[in-house]
Design brief:
This protein is an alpha+beta fold. The protein has two domains: about 55-205, no CATH class; about 215-295, no CATH class. About 60% of the residues lie in helices and about 10% in strands. Helix 1 crosses helix 2 and helix 1 runs antiparallel to helix 6. The chain is rod-shaped, with a radius of gyration of 42 Å.
């Protein structure tokens, strides 16, 4: 089949083959790089958010709680603003009020929380148990599928390291009266010092970032295809002008010479391989003319002798 194709067609097939192999290899490599970059972006966002929430927790524990704690004994309603986890959750809800971040989530998932809003679901319970089973484990990362889409999460253990926390979580008798009045005496008790009771989890949407990476990959590959198409067109123009057209002219002259039209000339102004070939053909034609003249001269002498 290839033998029946013209030189230009064969050359184009070669270029297209090289291009397809190149686009496959480069596309695969670029896809891996962009996916890794997208994962790094997601991880960076989640890390920044969880550090921000830790700052809110620390501020609440060091400055807000000492100011409000005395009121827990005299007021009828519990003041949740004294709880670092509550402050972090509320601040994050303000953050989520921006439509751009409505799919971001923060939760201090707890196995036995005072506020049932913080109750760990089955997936979160597995994370907490992983921390409880391995005390040296400081962080877990991964993807979680929800009906709303895939989320990338970072989870860190919540460990009771201050005895002041046990005031509200050791026994109902030790807890402030306002806490019992607000949340009851059934949940959030029995915690112990140095016990891992939950996990601090930040979740950010992964779909949009990976979609952006895919769009970038598509645009890059499209640009490469357009550039390659222009290159093929330019190469074809140069090939036709520098190779195919001169070869076609030499073929036409060779055809004329083969039919006895010796006045046709192999003309080529270039000094490249095509020019050298044209000069060689011209010398061959001259040699052929000389040989024919010699044959004709020999034939004439033979006729005169006879």
């Amino acid at each position: 089949m290839l033998k029946n194709l013209r030189l230009g067609s064969k050359f184009n097939l070669l270029l297209i083959g090289v291009f397809l192999i190149g686009i496959l290899l480069s596309g695969t490599a670029l896809s891996v790089i962009l996916s890794r970059n997208a994962a790094d972006q997601i991880s960076l966002k989640a890390s920044i958010l969880i550090q921000t929430m830790n700052a809110v927790r620390q501020y609440t524990n060091d400055q807000v709680n000492p100011e409000l704690a005395p009121r827990l004994e005299v007021e009828d309603d519990f003041l949740p603003e004294t709880v670092p986890g509550y402050s972090a959750r509320e601040v994050f809800e303000y953050f989520r009020s921006d439509p751009e971040y409505r799919d971001f989530f923060y939760k201090e998932a707890t196995l036995n929380p005072t506020n049932l809003r913080d109750k760990a679901d089955p997936f979160e319970t597995e994370l907490v148990n992983s921390f409880r089973e391995n005390d040296s484990l400081k962080e877990l990362r991964g993807n979680r599928s929800l009906p709303s889409g895939n989320l990338y999460y970072i989870a860190r253990p919540i460990k009771i390291v201050q005895e002041t926390c046990l005031r509200c979580h050791s026994t109902p008798e030790a807890a402030p009266a306002s806490q019992i009045a607000t949340y009851g005496d059934q949940n959030g008790f029995g915690w112990q010092l140095n016990e891992i009771v939950g996990a601090q989890i930040i979740s950010v949407p992964a779909a949009e970032i990976f979609k952006t990476a895919q769009n970038v990959l598509f645009l890059v590959l499209l640009t490469v295809c357009i550039v390659f198409a222009i290159i093929i067109l330019a190469i074809n123009i140069m090939l036709r002008k520098a190779v195919i057209s001169p070869l076609n002219r030499m073929a036409a002259v060779a055809q004329d010479v083969s039919t006895g039209k010796m006045d046709s000339k192999f003309q080529q102004d270039s000094h490249d391989e095509i020019g050298v070939l044209a000069a060689a053909f011209e010398r061959m034609k001259l040699s052929l003319v000389m040989a024919m003249e010699m044959l004709n001269s020999g034939g004439d002498r033979q006729d005169r002798q006879n």
